[in-house]
Structure formats: structure tokens, C-alpha cells
From TrEMBL:
Organism placement in taxonomy: Bacteria, Bacillati, Bacillota, Clostridia, Eubacteriales
InterPro entries: HAD-like_hydrolase_sf, HAD-like_sf, HAD_2, HAD_sf, PGP-like_dom2
Top-rank taxon, per record: Bacteria
Organism for this UniProt entry: Hydrogenoanaerobacterium saccharovorans
Name this protein carries in UniProt: HAD hydrolase-like protein
PANTHER family: 5'-NUCLEOTIDASE, PHOSPHOGLYCOLATE PHOSPHATASE
Length: 218
């Protein structure tokens, strides 16, 4: 068994597939900015990175317009986004295996915390977690590293070697690395093998069961 006592999970692309909700809301936010985006793969690039960063990087928005797009996104997501998520097959079973082994499980997501909690509640996943943490609605906590720091402080500030991050994008790996924390990359989400390997993931999981197998030494 690996020495990890605390396992932090990204949400979008790791615990649930958010594609329908996020792409619908991104398309709406872009429309509000006068941008019509019909390329589905382009919309999917927005799954994972902090929203403002994605709008800046992929649609060349300045800071003011990027944050207005974030507000437009959130306004629609608050109404439709929670329902337009699908937990990945086998995820709850993997979480319960880790819980039964005594691991402290947390969500650490760049999605606003109220949305993350609503999604966990909606799909019966809240019972699996000791803490669900996310970005703040006032935008003072948006980067993955800041979310990880907040979550760790909320569960007793374990030592870095006791913590494992699990996520599907380089932002998860890099955010964890800022604190000397290992990160498992998942290949069933929205990051590629190349992206996760280049970022420094310590292990690549093909399916949720692989995460539990890795931690528990199966």
C-alpha cells in the first residue's frame, strides 16, 4: 500500500463527465461576447483549466471580457449545469474502496465550491468525501494550487508525502507539484497521455478502479 493518507480528487473529467453542461454554458458565454463557437472539440478545451484562463488563452479575451464571460457562464450553469453531469462508471466504487481502507477523501476543483457540492449531493457522492472544496465565487481562489492549499488546510494540513492528487489535466499535476505532492493522471478525462506525462504525473489510470488499485497496492 502506498503511504498516502489523504487523496484529493479533481471533479470535472475525473469524478464526473461534465461535457454537456460545460460546453453548453461556454457556448452561451461566448455568444454573449459576440463569438459563435460551433466546434465541439474547441469547446471541450475549456474543461479543466480555470474558466478565465481558458477564455483568455483560447479566445484572446482581455481580463475584463474574460471575467464577464465567466459571469455569463456561471449564470447559466447555476440553472442547468448540475444536472448535465455524469459520474464516470466505477468511480463511486473506487471511492468507497479507498474510504473503507481508511483514506481521507477530498474534492479539490477549480469549479466554484457551491456547484461542486451540489454535484456531489445530486449524484450521491457527498457521502464518499470528508471535504468538498473548490474555487471561491469572489474569484480570490481560482488557481488549482490555491484550491489545493485551501483543501489541505481544511483537513488538518497533512504532510506533502501523505497526500495524492488525482486529476485529468496538467493543471492538476502542476498544482500538486507546487506543494511537493504526487499526482495520478486519469486517461478517461480530457487530458492526453502526453499532456499528463509531460506535466509529471506519477501514474496514469485508465479507469477509476486503477486509482484505488494504485493507492492500495493491488
Amino acid at each position: 500500500m502506498k503511504p498516502y493518507t489523504h487523496i484529493l480528487f479533481d471533479l470535472d473529467g475525473t469524478i464526473t463527465d461534465p461535457a454537456e453542461g460545460i460546453t453548453t454554458c461556454v457556448r452561451h458565454a461566448l455568444h454573449c461576447q459576440g463569438i459563435e463557437e460551433e466546434n465541439y472539440q474547441n469547446l471541450c478545451r475549456m474543461i479543466g483549466p480555470p474558466l478565465a484562463e481558458g477564455f483568455r488563452d483560447f479566445y484572446d479575451m482581455d481580463e475584463e471580457h474574460a471575467w464577464q464571460a465567466v459571469r455569463d457562464f456561471r449564470e447559466l450553469f447555476a440553472r442547468i449545469g448540475v444536472e448535465k453531469n455524469i459520474p464516470y462508471p466505477g468511480m463511486k466504487e473506487a471511492l468507497l474502496r479507498l474510504r473503507d481502507a481508511g483514506k481521507v477523501l477530498c474534492v479539490a476543483t477549480s469549479k466554484p465550491e457551491p456547484f461542486a457540492r451540489a454535484i456531489a449531493d445530486r449524484f450521491g457522492l457527498a457521502e464518499c468525501f470528508d471535504f468538498v472544496g473548490g474555487a471561491s465565487l469572489d474569484d480570490t481562489r481560482t488557481k488549482k494550487a490555491a484550491v489545493i492549499e485551501y483543501v489541505l488546510a481544511s483537513v488538518g494540513s497533512p504532510k506533502p508525502e501523505q497526500v495524492l492528487m488525482v486529476g485529468d489535466r496538467r493543471h492538476d499535476v502542476e498544482g500538486a507539484a507546487a506543494f511537493g505532492i504526487d499526482c495520478v493522471g486519469v486517461l478517461y478525462g480530457y487530458g492526453s497521455r502526453e499532456e499528463l506525462t509531460a506535466a509529471g504525473a506519477c501514474f496514469l489510470a485508465e479507469q477509476p478502479a486503477d486509482i484505488a488499485d494504485y493507492v492500495l497496492g493491488k
